[in-house]
C-alpha cells in the first residue's frame, strides 16, 4: 500500500464495502463506481477524506473526484479491495440499470457527442482565429485586416479554412454516424461511409439549398419517382436518424443471414437500405425537425423577450448540468450554426462555466488561510476557467450551496446582457475564458463585458454571503445550508 492507504481503506468502507461495488473504473480525475445500492454510500464522510475533492452521481455512476493523482489512488484501491477494474465503457453498461428512461436518453446523446467535442472545439478556435485576422479592421487607421495587408496571413487564412470546413461541414455528419455505430456495436466503417454519403460533393451543398431555385436542384430520376440530391452538411438530426437506422438494419441482417454469406450480405444490404432511407425519407424529416427546434430557440434568443430567455437560461444552465440535460445543447448549438451561421446559445454556456469558477474564486479568497480547502479551490478555478466545471461545481460550490447560487445569479445577469447585445459565436469553443476566440468579431466587445459580469458578480456575492456565514473563520462549517446531496440525487 502507498501514500493513499488510509483514504483507500476508508473510501472502500464508506461506499458500502467491496460487496456493494458491481463495477469500478476511473477517468482523468475521477473514480467511477457502479454501486448495487447507492444509498449505502456515505457522501458526507467520503467528501471529508483528504484525497477527495468532491463527489457526484451521473449516468448511474457514483463518481469521486480525486484529481490528477487518480491513477495511483485507483491502483491502491483495486489492490485493497480485491476487485478487478473494468473499462469506462463496461462501467457505463453496468450503470444502465441505475438510470431511468430520461437519464438513459441523455447519456446516449452525451456518448454520441463526447468523442466529437475535441474536433468541434479545435474547429471553433480555428474559425475564431480566422475571424480575428480576416474580419477585424485593426490596420491602416482601421480600414484593413491583417489578411488584407499580409500575403502570409492571407495564405494562412485560406489554409485554416481547410480544417474549419472539414469539422463543421463534412465532419459533423460523418463523426455522428461513426459515433453512433461505435455505441451500437456495429461496423464503424459503414457508419463513416454512410456519413460521407450525406456530405458527398455530388450533392447540392446544404448551405446552397436556400439560394437555389427549386427547378435547379439536381434530382435522382428513377422513372417512377424523383428524389432531390441534397447534402446534409453540418446537419445533426438527419445524421443521427440515418446512423440509428444503419445500426438496427445491421443487427437485423446479422440475425437472418447465415454465417457463410454474412460478411458480404450484411454490409451491402445494411448500407444500401440505410442510404436510401437517409436520402429518401429520414434526411428531409430530420432537416425539418432540426430547423423547427433551432427556429424555436432562435426566436427565444432574438425575440422581444430575449432578455427574459437569457436570464432564465443563464440562471438554470448550471442545474441542467447536474441532471445531464445540458447535453442537448450540443445538438442545438450545431443546428443553430448550420441554420443561422452562428449560435447565441453557446456564449451563455461559456459564461455559466466562468461564473462557477468565479464563485470558487470567492471561496478561495475567503479560505485563503485554509490550506486544505485551497487544495481543491485553486485547481478547480483553473479547470473551470478553461472550460471544465466538474471540480468547481461538485467539489466546492454544491458542497457549500450558496456559491452555486451566487454563480447562477451571475450567469443569469450575464445572460441578460448577452442576449440584449445579440452576442453570437461562430462555433462551439472552449467553455471558459478562452471562449472569446470563438465569438464573432462584432460580438467580442459585448462578450468581454459579459465575461467581466460572470467574474465580478459571483465573486462579490460569494465574498459577501461567505463573510456573513463565517466562511474562512474558526467557526466555519462545511455547509451553511441543507445538505444538497440528497436533492441532487433526487434530481437525477
Automatic annotation (TrEMBL):
GO terms for biological process: phosphoenolpyruvate-dependent sugar phosphotransferase system. One of its GO terms (molecular function) is protein-phosphocysteine-trehalose phosphotransferase system transporter activity. Residues 107-483 form the PTS EIIC type-1 domain. One of its GO terms (cellular component) is plasma membrane. It is found in: Cell membrane. Keywords: Cell membrane, Kinase, Membrane, Phosphotransferase system, Sugar transport, Transferase, Transmembrane, Transmembrane helix, Transport. NCBIfam families: PRK11007.1, PTS-IIBC-Tre. This is PTS system, trehalose-specific IIBC subunit. It comes from Coriobacterium glomerans (strain ATCC 49209 / DSM 20642 / JCM 10262 / PW2). The lineage of its organism: Bacteria, Bacillati, Actinomycetota, Coriobacteriia, Coriobacteriales.
Amino acid at each position: 500500500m502507498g501514500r493513499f492507504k488510509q483514504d483507500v481503506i476508508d473510501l472502500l468502507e464508506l461506499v458500502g464495502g467491496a460487496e456493494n461495488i458491481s463495477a469500478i473504473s476511473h477517468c482523468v480525475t475521477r473514480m467511477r463506481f457502479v454501486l448495487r445500492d447507492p444509498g449505502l454510500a456515505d457522501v458526507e464522510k467520503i467528501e471529508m477524506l483528504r484525497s477527495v475533492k468532491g463527489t457526484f452521481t451521473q449516468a448511474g455512476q457514483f463518481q469521486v473526484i480525486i484529481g490528477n493523482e487518480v491513477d495511483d489512488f485507483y491502483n491502491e484501491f483495486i489492490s485493497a479491495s480485491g476487485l478487478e477494474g473494468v473499462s469506462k465503457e463496461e462501467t457505463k453498461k453496468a450503470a444502465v440499470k441505475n438510470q431511468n428512461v430520461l437519464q438513459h436518453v441523455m447519456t446516449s446523446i452525451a456518448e454520441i457527442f463526447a468523442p466529437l467535442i475535441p474536433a468541434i472545439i479545435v474547429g471553433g478556435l480555428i474559425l475564431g482565429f480566422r475571424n480575428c485576422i480576416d474580419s477585424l479592421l485593426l490596420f491602416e487607421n482601421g480600414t484593413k485586416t491583417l489578411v488584407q495587408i499580409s500575403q502570409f496571413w492571407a495564405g494562412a487564412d485560406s489554409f485554416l479554412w481547410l480544417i474549419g470546413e472539414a469539422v463543421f461541414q463534412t465532419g459533423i455528419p460523418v463523426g455522428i454516424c461513426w459515433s453512433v455505430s461505435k455505441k451500437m456495436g456495429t461496423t464503424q466503417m459503414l457508419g463513416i461511409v454512410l456519413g460521407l454519403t450525406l456530405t458527398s460533393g455530388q450533392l447540392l451543398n446544404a448551405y446552397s439549398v436556400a439560394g437555389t431555385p427549386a427547378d435547379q436542384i439536381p434530382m435522382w430520376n428513377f422513372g417512377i419517382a424523383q428524389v432531390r440530391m441534397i447534402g446534409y452538411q453540418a446537419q445533426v438530426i438527419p445524421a443521427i436518424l440515418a446512423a440509428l437506422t444503419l445500426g438496427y438494419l445491421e443487427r437485423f441482417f446479422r440475425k437472418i443471414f447465415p454465417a457463410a454469406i454474412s460478411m458480404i450480405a450484411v454490409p451491402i444490404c445494411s448500407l444500401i437500405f440505410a442510404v436510401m432511407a437517409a436520402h429518401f425519407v429520414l434526411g428531409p424529416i430530420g432537416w425539418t425537425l432540426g430547423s423547427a427546434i433551432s427556429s424555436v430557440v432562435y426566436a427565444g434568443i432574438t425575440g422581444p423577450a430575449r432578455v427574459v430567455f437569457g436570464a432564465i437560461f443563464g440562471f438554470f444552465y448550471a442545474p441542467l448540468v447536474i441532471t445531464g440535460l445540458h447535453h442537448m445543447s450540443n445538438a442545438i448549438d450545431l443546428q443553430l450554426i448550420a441554420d443561422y451561421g452562428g449560435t447565441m446559445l453557446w456564449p451563455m454556456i461559456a459564461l455559466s462555466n466562468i461564473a462557477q469558477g468565479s464563485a470558487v474564486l470567492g471561496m478561495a479568497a475567503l479560505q485563503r488561510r485554509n490550506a486544505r480547502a485551497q487544495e481543491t479551490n485553486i485547481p478547480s478555478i483553473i479547470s473551470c476557467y478553461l472550460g471544465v466545471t466538474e471540480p468547481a461545481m461538485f467539489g466546492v460550490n454544491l458542497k457549500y450551496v450558496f456559491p452555486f447560487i451566487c454563480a447562477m445569479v451571475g450567469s443569469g445577469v450575464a445572460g441578460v446582457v448577452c442576449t440584449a447585445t445579440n452576442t453570437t459565436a461562430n462555433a462551439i469553443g472552449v467553455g471558459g475564458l478562452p471562449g472569446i476566440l470563438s465569438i464573432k468579431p462584432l460580438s467580442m466587445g459585448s462578450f468581454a463585458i459579459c465575461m467581466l459580469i460572470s467574474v465580478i458578480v459571483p465573486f462579490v456575492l460569494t465574498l459577501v454571503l461567505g463573510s456573513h456565514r463565517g466562511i474562512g473563520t474558526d467557526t466555519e462549517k462545511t455547509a451553511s445550508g441543507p445538505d444538497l446531496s440528497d436533492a441532487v440525487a433526487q434530481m437525477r
